[in-house]
Amino acid sequence: MSGRGGRATLVAVAVVLAWLVIGGVAGPYAGRLSEVATNDNAAFLPTDAEATRAQDLAGQFVDRATIPALVVYERPSGITDADRQRVSADAARFAQVPGVVTPLPPPIPSEDGQALQVVVPVDDAEGDEIGTVVEQLRDITGGDRDGLTVDVSGPAGLLADLIEVFSAIDGPLLLVTLVVVLIILLVVYRSPVLWIFPLLAAGMSYALASVFVYLLADADVLKLNGQAQGILTVLVFGAGTDYALLLIARYREELHRHDRPWAAMRAAWKGAAPAIIASGGTVIVSLLCLLLSSLNSNRALGPVAAIGIAATLLVMLTFLPALLVLGGRWAFWPRRPREDQVDPRLEHGIWSRIAGFVARHARPIWLSTAVVLALLTLGLTQLGATTLGQSDLFTQRVDSVDGQEVISRHYPAGTGSPATIFTTEQTARQVAQVAQGVRGVADVRPLSAGPQTGPPNPNAAPKVVDGRVQLEATLTDPPDSDGAERTIRELRVAVHQVPGSDAVVGGFTAINVDTSDAAKRDQNVIIPVVLVVIAVILALLLRALLAPVLLIATVLLSFAATLGLCALLFRHVFDFPGVDSSFPLFAFVFLVALGIDYNIFLMSRVREESVRRGTRAGVLAGLAVTGGVITSAGIVLAATFSALAVLPLVVLVELGTAVAIGVLIDTIVVRSLLVPALAYDIGPKIWWPGRLSRANGEREARDAG
């Protein structure tokens, strides 16, 4: 026995040392993910989207593709000569900034005389370095002075503010996540030692995932954006801690039955690993369903998050067990488990009482909880998926939002970010006339052949490339508003009807329109596929058909209730204008995949106990022994996703809030009451058509007789 124990200890030491070496190599990459991230919406559009085709055509009309920064100066009492001199001096300095494409067009005065606007084209090839260019522009302007306000807005200003927000992921978000997990682990374990093991394993998982994501993004195999990077952080730490809690709880249980830690771990691993692997596999496959998305951003998030879960599974099933074996019973100090063969249900007094309550009132419990969740779904009427406007994108004031509001007060709101129309030379005049007649279009001008040295001339000769002409349509609404999107849709209908025009409409607003349309298409395609995949996995795991159907139904009900509750909170508490078009799909993938996780943890143990005790007794035993650990896991995951609220971006705050609320509903209501009560009420038929259904049915019939 001692020889086997010695070999087991040596293996554990070797595994820990190997992982520490891997961690030393992979660790630095965790702080370098921002280097390979891109946050340009256009880079994620489908290749067949009209805005994408317009972007390709736009590249033929310029030597270098640009993204405009709009520097707007405002003095409510009227622009002075000194102001004009300052603007001219600033413009001359703008032209010297690396990344700015010259010559700059002259400043554009507003009709009311209260504002001046300078359009600064920034080389699109700068990528995320556009943020650095915009920062230099803001440094040059020097901010507000002597009653003259200055803001740098436009698409480049917005992108720069987004890049600054996502730069917080490498530091504050990771720190907040670590602190949240640490505090919860201390509360759960009440041990000054044990929290180290899951937290160290979660950190190792994040390092391993980071190196793979970095290398794949650097090689352009996948695209990484700030949103995916933030989700990767909280998902790895949240899911990793969940898996650790499950394994540690089973290890503690087995330490009561075995005298040697390595023997207890072997039994714990055999008991917990199938559920952990099934849980992680379900999440991975669900995330990989995002590869069916038409949006490159969604297709990127799927593999990025799946890599995070795969790395977490590998670490939690190798590194963490080795650490726990080396820690032995001392890891649980001061509440060290003894080998006393105690029934594990006796250690879970509260959950044993809850199981008894479920047994006495099974049908009223599942009916009442189902009704409450169904009532919460009524809040879905308040959930209006849309594309969030620039002023609605952030939870705090930023320069690009202030600048857009100034532009909206003094200019046609779409100035500086026009819709672009590409059409044949022969139909250009007719297309321009039709476009001018569309409600919401302020002005239509052709891109002229020569350099622009003064105000735009509508009679200038248009530039012709391969028989095509580019028209620029200035919109009356801000480029990221619902009004501008309606205008783009109407504009496309109008110009497409011009015979022989072969018109293509693009630009900043068109990108938002096509992104929103692609997101709706993705929901209709991906959600059914995810449900089918999860059903197959559950059927294989539980060797039944009825149980998977009921579990998926409860998770869908929980998902709908969560969205309904969130819709009420977002509108009436947080005062958010709506949710982004990508929100329902992301919320579904994470809530359904993670919600099924807890049902897998519960029902896999219920099935194990049902084989020994019978179905109804197995339900109660499974609930008693898993209740505490699953609830703790849910609280950890909810808290880690809540950490997304530290980023001042509405879409991530909404996603973090939805996942946190949904996970708590799943763990406290669905998994603790609804599912056990439903399974208890149905009895052995829950395993239909498997053999366990017939065997337990006969056993319970004999017991009743």
TrEMBL record:
PROSITE patterns (alphabetical):
SSD
Keyword Transmembrane attached: yes
Q: Does the keyword Cell membrane apply?
A: yes
Q: Which residues form a coiled coil?
A: none
Q: Where does it mainly reside?
A: membrane
Q: Which residues cross the membrane?
A: 171-189, 196-217, 229-251, 272-293, 305-326, 365-385, 525-542, 549-570, 582-602, 614-639, 645-665
Instruction: Give the SSD domain ranges.
Output: 231-326, 552-680
This protein's membrane topology, according to the annotation, is: Multi-pass membrane protein
Q: Name one GO cellular component term.
A: plasma membrane
Give UniProt keywords alphabetically: Cell membrane, Membrane, Transmembrane, Transmembrane helix
Q: Where in the cell is it found?
A: Cell membrane
Recorded family membership? Belongs to the resistance-nodulation-cell division (RND) (TC 2.A.6) family. MmpL subfamily.
Full protein name: RND superfamily putative drug exporter
Species assigned in the record: Micromonospora taraxaci
